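SEVERITY: medium
COMPONENT: batch folding queue
REPORTER: lab tech (J.R.)

DESCRIPTION
The queue accepted two submissions in a row. Attaching both inputs and their returned C-alpha cells so the on-call engineer can compare them side by side.

ATTACHMENT 1
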Amino acid sequence: MRITVVGLGYVGLSLSLVLSQEHQVLALDIDIDKVNSINDKKTPIKNEAIENFFLSKNLNLSATTDKKSAYSGSDFVIVSTPTNYSSERESFDTLSVENTIKDSINFNPNATIVIKSTVPIGFTDRMKKKFNFKNIFFSPEFLREGNALLDNLKPTRIIIGDKSKNSITFSEMLLSCSNVQRDNIEILFMTSKEAEAVKLFSNTYLAMRVSFFNELDTFAEVNKLNSKSIINGVSADPRIGNYYNNPSFGYGGYCLPKDTKQLLNNYENIPNDLIKAIIQSNQTRKKFIANSIIAKSPKTVGIHRLTMKKGSNNFRESAILDVIDLLRKREVEIILYEPIIEASFNGIKVIKDLNEFISLADIIVSNRFSKDFELINNKVYCRDIFYID
C-alpha cells in the first residue's frame, strides 16, 4: 500500500515508522526541520526507542512539505494533526483536520481518509456531510507519552469506526505491522461516532482514576495518614487493580485535560455529575498542593522540572504550571530548575546549576521524585509515592 501520514507529532511519527515496515509511507508536515530529519534517517523527536527503530529497521519512509506529491496516488491518508482544546469555543480546534480532509479530497478523491487526531463526538459524520465524501472513518490511538512507538507495536486493542472493506484492510495493516498475534488482541468495528466516544470516555476514565487517588492522598495528608498503606490496601482488590494509582499534583499532558473538557462539552444538555466533577477535582487538587506549600511559609520556592513524567521534555498542560500560577498570585518568590529552558520562563528565573538551585530554595517542589533529592529529602515537597509515572 501507499500511505500518506499527515502530521509528524508522536502519533503521526510512530504510525509512520510502524507502517513503513511493510508499506510505502510518505509523511507530510509543514515543519521543514522534521521533514529533513526523516529524509536524513534521523528522528525529529528525541526518544531512544524511536531512534533505535530508525537505525535497526529497513523502513520505506520519506517525508515532504509538498501537498500534491504527498497525496497523489495514496491508498490511505492518515490524519494525525493536533487538535488542541479551545477555551473560547469550549471544544477542540479541528481546523487542521478539516483542512487536511479538504486537501486529501482535492488532490486524491480515491484515497480512504483515516482520522487519528482526537476529535469531538460526531465530527466524522459532520465531515462526511460537509464534503459530501463517504470514504472517511475515525480510528482512535491509545498512546502513552514517551511510549508511542511501543504502543503502536503492541496495541492493547484496535478500534475501527467503520465496517467497510477498506476499514477491514486498514485494521489488518495495523495488525500485520505490529508485534502482536491476532488471537491476542481485540479488533472492534463500530460507527465512527461510537469510536470517537471510546477515545474520550477512555481518557476521562483514566483522569477519574488519577483524581480519585489524588483525593485519597489529600485526605491522608490532612489526617497525617500513610497514603501508601491506604493505596496498597485499596489496590489489592483485583476489581480496582494496582495501576494509575500514584498520587501527583494533578493530571496533565497532551490528552487528559483536553479530552475530559471535550467530553463534558459533548454532554451539553445531557444530565451528568461525574464528568464535570472530574475536571473540578483536578483543579481542587492543584489548589490544595499550592496551599500546602504556602502553609510551610517558604521565602523561596524552587520548582524542580516542569515536565509531567520522567524521560519527557513535554510540559504542556503540566499540573505544576497551575500550581506555579497559584503561588504567584500569593506573591511567593519562585525559582526554576529546568534543563530544557535557557534563561527564564514567564518571568521566573531559571537556575541551571542544580547545587545552586538547591541552596537557594527553602523548599523544593517536584511532581515526580528524582534521584537528585536523595540527600535533601527533608527539603522536598513531592507526592510521588511509588516512584512511577
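ATTACHMENT 2
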Amino acid sequence: MRLILAASVGLAVVGAYAAYRVWEQGERDEQRPVDAIVVLGAAQYNGRPSPLFEARLDHALSLYFAGIAPRIVVTGGKAEGDRWTEADAARAYALAHDVPANAILAEDQGRNTLESLRAVADILADEELESAVFVSDRSHMLRVLRIARDLGIDAYGSPTRTSPLEHDIGARVQAYVHELGALAVYFVAGAAPPFESLETASSGR
C-alpha cells in the first residue's frame, strides 16, 4: 500500500509539473529575428482555414510583416477525402494577404505534429535555415518546441492569443489534457499519440 501510495503521489507531482510547464510555455512569447516562421496546421474546409487555423495564420503573418523572418513555412497534410492539404490552404491564405510566393515554404504530408516537424526540419536544412519561431495555440507550444529542439532546430515559440480556444473554457481544458497525454507518449515512446490524427486534430493537432 505504501508503494502504491508513493507511486500515486509521484505520478500526481509529475502530472502537476507537466501541466504547469505546458501552461507556462504557452504564456511566453519568444519572438525574435530568426530565419523562418513556422505555422502549425489545423483544420481547413475546401481550402478555407478553420477559425482556429486562421488565427494561427494571422499571427504568423503579423510576425512576417513585422520583419521577424524572411520566410514562412506552412504545414499539414490532408485528411481522407479532402482535396486540399492544410499547407495548401495556408499558402493560399498567405498569398491572398500579400506574402510573396518565394517567401513561402510548405510541408504538405504530415498528419500529426511529429510528422510535420520532422519534415520541417528537413526543409529548413535544405534551405540552410537554422532558427525559427513556431506559431500555434498556447497549449501546443511546449510539445512543438521540445520536438523541434530535439530535431536540431534553434526553436522559439510565439503562441497566438486570438484563437477560438481563448473564449471556450471547455475546449481549452480539453486541449491541455490532450497535450499532457501527447507529451507523455512522446517522452516515453518518441512517437505521436494514436489519438492525434488529422481527423481528430481540428481543434489543435
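NOTES FROM REPORTER
Residues 55 and 162 are 6 Å apart (CA to CA).
No errors were logged for either attachment.
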